[in-house]
Design brief:
The structure is a single chain. With about 375 residues, this protein is α/β, with parallel strands linked by helices. It folds into 2 domains: about 1-230, Rossmann fold (3-Layer(aba) Sandwich), CATH 3.40.50; about 255-365, no CATH class. It is built from 15 helices and 12 strands. The protein has helices spanning about 1-10, 55-65, 90-95, 115-130, 135-145, 155, 165-180, 195-215, 225-230, 250-255, 260-265, 305-310, 340, 350, 360-365, and strands spanning about 10-25, 30-40, 45-50, 70-80, 80-85, 100-105, 185-190, 215-220, 235-240, 240-245, 315, 320-325. Strands 6-7-8-3-9-10-12-11 form an 8-stranded mixed sheet, with helices on both faces. Strand 1 and strand 2 (about 30-40) form a beta hairpin. The longest helix is centred in the middle third of the chain and has 18 residues, at about 195-215. The protein is globular. Bound molecules: adenosine-5'-diphosphate (ADP) and magnesium ion.
Length: about 375
């Protein structure tokens, strides 16, 4: 079987190729996703980061086959050796849960308000293991609730969703995902609706779920800080495209796209308390009438003429695993995070260091 040996060679559990999603609307065509490609290896964790409206959720919904019927989807989404975009909804639902599980920002999207947490976990378990006794399933449900950090799980197993806090509900959703033993978990802003104090605990529960099930994880967030400790690789999205991707180290230490630098500059600096935040000014473009050129150009302190004329392709910048969609990626070598944005309006050429005069520390060992 060629497909199976392909899979063994590459190890990818999910491969998205040139995914495009458009929504025809009264005002015109919304180009929500414009040629997104990524591969997810088994057990790997990929962080997808970007501002609101950059196409993160639409990309995830396309992979899950959960877009509204009006969406025009092109490209390829392969789970192991199956092309998901070619499947009927009925066939696709076979893959949801046990192949690909999705965790949404609002846990009530996944929970049924009229059934107890335990009942919903038991149902999931018995769907996958029809021979499991009711008693064994209940015991396993209690165990799963404990695993995701729910205190007194033997009591909470009978609680209804409305009796639980937002954080506890999200833990139940994670427990259900675990009960499905998925190969891929897609978590779309799983902590965004939650209290800051709970956010880290939910991310830990996700890590536990990943470790116990061996699932690969796609962690979608607008917060670059969230991916730092929870992803192996990062893809940064802007205006419907991936505009930079690489290892966590590539993205945090040698970003090669001014937008990523801007996101990094927006992070609070814990080491230097007096340092102000340096947010990116302006807002992302409308996806209805995208002008030619780089969609980030109007907000970019490095903008030059070519940026308004040609949209830069995503191409290797530095290490082979590190890709950037910037005409001037090479000039960003060794530029500190936030530096370009803090000094926007100053002489950018004097700030940037050219690849031939400075070498990134990463490249020496690559
Ligand atoms: N059903 C839809 N019809 C029309 N436009 C949509 C629809 N769903 C999403 N969009 C648009 O697609 C773009 C990407 O949205 P989304 O993926 O939800 O962004 P993100 O998750 O990164 O915040 C946005 O401009 C959004 O308004
Ligand atoms: Mg979203």
């Amino acid at each position: 079987m060629t497909a199976a040996s392909d899979r063994n060679e590459t190890g990818a559990v999910l491969a998205v190729d040139d995914l495009t999603v458009e929504f025809p609307t009264e005002d015109g065509i919304v180009r929500a996703v414009r040629g997104v490609s990524y591969r997810l290896e088994r057990r790997e964790s990929l962080g997808i980061v970007g501002e609101s409206g950059s196409g993160k959720s639409v990309t995830a919904l396309a992979v899950m086959g959960l877009l509204p019927a009006t969406a025009r989807v092109r490209g390829s989404v392969r789970f192991e050796d199956t092309e998901l975009l070619a499947l009927s909804d009925a066939r696709l639902s076979d893959f949801r849960g046990s192949g690909l599980a999705m965790i949404f920002q609002d846990p009530m999207t996944s929970l049924n308000p009229v059934y107890s947490a335990g009942y919903q976990i038991v149902e999931t378990l018995r769907r996958h293991q029809p021979d499991m006794t009711a008693r064994a399933a209940r015991e396993r449900a209690v165990e799963l609730l404990g695993t995701v950090g729910i205190p007194s799980p033997e009591r909470r197993v009978d609680a209804y969703p409305h009796e639980l806090s937002g954080g506890m509900r999200q833990r139940v959703v994670i427990a259900i995902a675990m009960a499905n033993a998925p190969d891929v978990i897609i978590a779309d802003e799983p902590t965004t609706a939650l209290d800051v104090t709970v956010q880290a605990q939910i991310l830990d529960a996700l890590e536990t779920a990943r470790a116990e099930t061996g699932a690969a994880l796609i962690l979608i967030t607008h917060d670059l800080g969230v991916v730092a400790g929870h992803a192996d690789r990062v893809a940064v999205m802007y205006a419907g495209r991936i505009i930079e991707t690489g290892s966590v180290e590539d993205i945090f230490y040698t970003p090669r796209m001014p937008y990523t630098l801007g996101l990094l500059g927006s992070l609070p600096r814990l080491d230097r308390e007096e340092e102000r935040l340096t947010p990116i000014t302006g807002s992302p473009p409308s996806l209805l009438n995208l002008p030619p050129g780089c969609p980030f150009a109007p907000r970019c302190p490095m903008r030059r003429n070519v940026c308004d004329e040609t949209e830069p392709p995503l191409r290797p910048a530095g290490r082979s695993t590190h890709l950037s969609a910037c005409h001037f990626a090479e000039e960003l070598v060794n530029t500190g995070a936030g530096e370009i944005f803090e000094t926007a309006g100053a002489d950018i050429d004097a700030l940037t260091r050219f690849a031939d005069t400075a070498q990134s520390p990463e490249e020496g060992t690559a």
